[in-house]
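COURSE: Structural Biology Practicum
ASSIGNMENT: Worksheet 4, Part C
STUDENT ID: 0417
INSTRUCTIONS: Below are two proteins. For each, the amino acid sequence is given first, followed by its structure token string. Answer the questions at the end about the second protein only.

PROTEIN I
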Amino acid sequence: MITSVFGKSKPINFILCSGIVLIYFVIYLFSGDKEVGVDMLTLQVPILFLLLFSLFMVDFIVKKNDLTQQNDYALLIVTLFIGFFPNIFEHLTIVFIHVFLLLAFRRVISLRSLHSVKQKLFDASMYITIALLFDSWIVLYLLIVYIGIILYVSSDYRNWLVPFVGFFSITIIYLSYIYFTDKNILTNPLFQFDLKIEYPLENYKQIALHSLITLLFCINIVIFFLKIKTYSSQKRNSFLLTNVLFFIGITYILFAKNNTYNTEILLLFPLGISTANVLENIENKRIGNILLVLLMIVSFGFNFYLK
């Protein structure tokens, strides 16, 4: 049943996915000993709208760039995986970063059209730099801009310089703000990098989540290489960009600062594309339905029982 609904691209599917996120939000509000009030909602409601906007961006990027077939599996998968982070409504920073990285990726992957190349490169580097102001390790995502240049517009040497312009434009504005507010640049968290990797082996919920993410992504890679000869060059480039986005996200999770929680949400977009590609290659729709039902059960289970 689920595959029959989301197996075709329809506007109603976005409304359904938005409704699922709203259900997550209601569950969050009335769980535990929270006192729902104006002060609480002034933080949580903006996060809710940012998450809904991120779903819109996912849907737009997938359809505009043909990252999947004519279906809404990626949108549904990303929605269900949001449920794996029941406390996401408490962490504005990582949701804000997630949205700006989606905006940046949208500009990078649209380089394939070869229109307004320099504007797209500037916008992508600018979005990433804005996100970088919240966590210095986001600088890793500038790599996706240069991968896009290599794949689509490497012949013009000026394109290699544009990301630096976007990066330094935002950085100079930020440094000016620090200077005029009499803050110490040397002690600013933006310029501090902690190379220490700490993986919480005692957090079984996180280990289970990471194992599921790794399994789904590995299955997708196997399927891609089995069918690589049937894919166009554009499809291959899109797959490479999505994979780079995933591996940058893994690196970021390992090095992210301790005050940035739910960093795995940055993997949702490439994971959604990967899982959608897996579902597309399952000929037996009953199996596809079973997998989606199980994912939905686990998603809501995280909200009700694994906070």
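PROTEIN II
(use this one for the questions)
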Amino acid sequence: MRIAPPPGGMSLFDHQPALFSAFNRFYGTLWTDGVVDEATKEVGRLRNARVVDCGI
């Protein structure tokens, strides 16, 4: 599992465990497989967060 479920039951993932499981499989594959190295993926993730004004 790449990320832990959020506490408190305030997320869609808390109410849809199958969806959370599928998301974790996809997220893990995204960060571990492929031809793009992790540093480049991280730069893309940070750019995306800045463009959409993500506070996290």
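ANSWER KEY EXCERPT:
Q1: The chain has three helices and no strands.
Q2: The two ends are 20 Å apart (CA to CA).
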